[in-house]
Specification:
Elements lengths: L2 E7 L15 H5 L7 H17 L3 E5 L7 H6 L9 H8 L10 E4 L9 E5 L6 H4 L1 H12 L6 E4 L14 E4 L8 E6 L12 H10 L7 E5 L2 H6 L8 E4 L2 E5 L6 H11 L4 E5 L6 H7 L5 E4 L6 E6 H5 L1 H12 L4 E7 L2 H4 L9 E6 L12 H14 L12 H17 L7
Parallel strand pairs: 1-2, 4-5, 7-8, 10-11, 13-14
Antiparallel strand pairs: 1-15, 3-4, 6-7, 9-10, 12-13
Helix pairs in contact: 2-14, 14-15
The chain binds N~2~-(3-carboxypropanoyl)-L-arginine (SUG).
N~2~-(3-carboxypropanoyl)-L-arginine binds next to loops.
Length: about 425
């Protein structure tokens, strides 16, 4: 049976705050702070365990090899000689945000009946532009079964693609054909628009989607300017529900009508700006939640960052919403503060793949025992703290490499080293 699996990026041992993402307010405002990679990874693992306890199916991806020496070699330098901003870009643990790893179209949406995944090029931010090589290798391994999956290389430059963070799918249930909504930005504002419409169109073509079940929607310029560098900071979809901020899309009413026309069952829950401002939405990340369907008819739950709980206006609105008779029945705050300080909430940390679980390489599928073993590796090997001025430190680099090696060994994935 087609089931939604959330693949979380395990937070890598080089997690740090280098302030590398202009337009991402958390990243720039926490630049220079001391990070806690061990605590960060344990927070991510606890989120996965909690999701397992809810009865959800959970997977994970390995951190990528950092520093990325082949990228540095392409720039005719290495960790010892590179300038600090290049060192930091080569060392980033940004692959933790698996929502940016790829765009996924489940089998019921595609002409060949396979689940298609396109690795994202992430080319707008230098530190993310070199993730795709490691990501593609991992996707090819996890989704190697060609009877069920087609894994594509990234869209070529100059068209930026940020993956599932700018893509939503509405459907009556995960195994039914869906409406795929690609959300692109237009450049010209104070911050970069990372998702290019040509990239979205190329992915839709590569995935062999039915043009009648695809929409291309423009992200509001005001949202990008306010710090919503990805659409998933202001909107999230699950099954027939779209949960969105009033100012997420450039033309909200046209967008809602187009959705309703193509999918009359859609339920669009709009959070009005006079109750939750764009600034509050972006500070609290209430939309960067995992909107999930609980098993056994439990309705839907929002797994959101504790920051949403701590913002009185946001929490007040959410509580009113769940007290009403809507589809979202439960609010579940999770502590992912280390990732949040770089602008990555619960939804950024996961890539949703609706597929037959048995078709996935089982090494990437989680259970409690594996998560415990991963937590043990993290506790022993992950650095406790990283101050940005230590990024080029040979001892730290050696520790980061050894830590990843230990994790790959534990997970039987040394072939990714
Ligand atoms: O691309 N932050 C990431 C956060 C990605 C969030 N993902 C989703 N919204 N799906 C980004 O801006 C900051 C790294 C630093 O500054 O050290 C960073 O890359």
């Amino acid at each position: 049976m087609i089931t939604e699996i959330n693949f979380d990026g395990i937070i890598g041992p080089s997690h740090n705050y280098a302030g590398m993402s202009p337009g991402n307010i958390a990243s720039t405002s926490n630049a220079g702070k001391v990070s806690q990679p061990r605590a960060a990874a344990l927070q991510g693992i606890e989120k996965m365990s909690a999701n397992l306890r809810l009865g959800l199916t959970q997977g994970f991806f390995m951190p990528l090899a950092r520093p990325n020496e082949s990228w540095l070699a392409g720039l005719a330098t290495g960790m010892t000689d590179a300038e600090p901003h290049i060192q930091a870009a080569a060392f980033s643990a940004s692959a933790m945000w698996a929502a940016n790893a790829a765009t996924v179209s489940p089998a019921p949406d595609t002409a060949d009946g396979r689940c298609h995944l396109s690795a994202s090029n992430l080319l707008t931010m230098p530190h993310r532009s070199h993730e795709w090589t490691g990501t593609l290798a991992q996707l090819k391994l996890a989704f190697a079964d060609e009877a069920h999956f087609a894994v594509h290389s990234p869209v070529p430059q100059p068209f930026g693609d940020e993956g599932a963070a700018n893509h939503m799918r509405l459907c009556t249930e995960h195994g039914a054909p869906g409406l795929e909504i690609f959300v692109y930005g237009k450049s010209g504002g104070p911050f970069p628009a990372r998702q290019h419409i040509e990239a979205s169109k190329a992915v839709a073509r590569a995935h062999r989607l039915d043009p009648n079940r695809v929409l291309f929607v423009q992200q509001a310029e005001a949202a990008i300017a306010a710090g919503a560098f990805h659409n998933d900071v202001v909107a999230v979809a699950n099954e027939r529900v779209l949960f969105t901020h009033e100012q997420a899309f450039e033309e909200p009413e046209t967008t809602y009508s187009a959705i309703r026309e193509k999918m009359p069952e859609a339920e669009i829950l709009v959070v009005p700006a006079d109750r939750v401002s764009l600034a509050d939405a972006i500070q609290s990340y209430l939309f960067n939640a995992q909107l999930v369907t609980l098993p056994d008819g439990g309705g839907m739950a929002l797994i959101l960052p504790t920051e949403a709980h701590d913002n009185a206006r946001v929490w007040g609105w959410l509580q009113e919403m769940v007290a009403g008779n809507g589809p979202i029945r439960k609010l579940i705050p999770v502590d992912v503060r280390q990732s949040m300080a770089n602008g990555g909430g619960p939804a950024c940390l996961r890539l949703r793949v609706a597929c037959e679980p048995a078709a996935v390489d089982p090494r990437f599928v989680a259970d409690e025992e594996k998560l415990d073993a991963i937590a043990d590796v993290v506790t022993v090997h992950w650095p406790e703290r990283i101050a940005p001025d230590r990024i080029g430190d040979p001892d730290l680099i050696a520790q980061v490499k050894a830590a990843r090696g230990a994790l790959l060994d534990t997970c039987g994935l040394s072939q990714l080293s």
